[in-house]
Design goal:
With about 475 residues, the protein is mainly β. Helix content is about 5%, strand content about 50%. It has one domain: Porin. It is built from three helices and 24 strands. The strands form three sheets. The protein has an 18-stranded antiparallel β-barrel. The chain has a two-stranded antiparallel sheet with strand order 8-9. The protein starts with a helix and ends with a strand.
Length: about 475
Amino acid sequence: MKFKDKLFRTLFFLASITASNLYAQNAASVFDSPAHISFSDSAKKHVLNIRAQLMDSIAITNLSNAKTHYDNSMSIRLFANGKFTDDFLFDTRVKISTDYTNRYININMYNPYEGIPYNKQSEKKRTWDLFAANVSYNTKIAKLLAGFDFIEWGPARRNHVILRGERSFYRPWQDSSSRITDAAPTPYFGYQFTLGPIEYTQYATKLYEKKNFGKYFHAHRLNLNLPKDISFGISETALYGTTTEPAGSNPNTESDSTGREFEWAYAIPFIPFVFQEHLQGDQDNISLAFDLSVKTLPNWEFYAELLWDDMKSPTSMFDDSWWGNKWATTLGIARDNIAVGPATLGWMFEYTRIEPWVYTHHKGTAYTYANYAQSLGSDLGPNSQELHTEVSTTYDFIKATLFFGAVAKDTAFGGHINDMHTPESATDKKFLNDETTLRYKELGFTLGLTPWDWFSFRCSYTRFFGDFEGYRAYAVGSVQW
């Protein structure tokens, strides 16, 4: 079938069924209603819910630095969740996709540094699949966690700088038909202890950078639920792996041809990673993070996330003379549940700043803050900033959002997550150098319709101004049962 014919049929399909959009991270919201296929015993102590979804989408992108391109994606999604007992819960989902485009698709060799793998069917067609699953078991002492899923930490509504989970946004400089920009899940095991207002969570995970090369990630977090609806979190991460670069290619001599295995000490609860790393040779990528959410005023939220990545000390945050003073932050304010007649309005404003070299490591990609070539933190990457604000309104089954954003992304050395600082590299850093920084603004809207639980529709239009000039129109629909 020719691509244009396929495109027209897709547009007709979207217009005729008025089907629904599900961004991957919001998939569960469509399935809040009772499942159509459900199995349980008479006492409902053992439950299995099954759902299925058919999606189709079209994106038209017209930017001044590239010809107009069309991308169509069709997918089948299966969902299953339930419980084996009241304390043993599970949730799983699978997505099988077929993509069509008028751009050339490169061959994918199933190496994680290429991103999520796919099968090239022709120059304009590919297929790929993705799944996620998790289980939890409540004991008298702790909740046990395991899965192949996404981990999301922090109160940010758009850009998490700590762990972004499944969130993914369109970035013009990342636009490619030869790469899937979705976040990728990771296998993990962990546990959670709760003592009154104190909650401690820990994960040990495996990441993917290069086939047959081990890469490991550990994270633990202490969350304090304080009076006046205030939440404060402190977290640490540790990351390490076997050298993926060819021997002799990394001038940092202590990093060349290093083999690493899973460090079990990081899986022990309550041990500060920064101390444990010293006992293991001071060789891993350690970061410290803080987050705060204040909801003291009804329907208001003030929030912040701060990531410290290998800084010498807190007082060195604004010292640009040393490249290793790496940090990132997101600051936000939001107002929810504003009643205007029969409609409900919401508003948010968020600012994100990521210093040069954040998420990178001088030992190479085995130590970078990435999985399947995607940042575990904000997808803006190092040396970037974004200001984003939006107003949304909900009326019955209709939700509309108007948004504005201003983005800056430095393309110089230290602005990509795989950049390696070497002994020959400059020891200072420059945030958003005028000569190498891409700057653009985006103005747009989204419209979502969900008149019934079995179908809905979403479309969006974004206009770009600045170093990226043009527009992107997107429509996606789904039928689910």
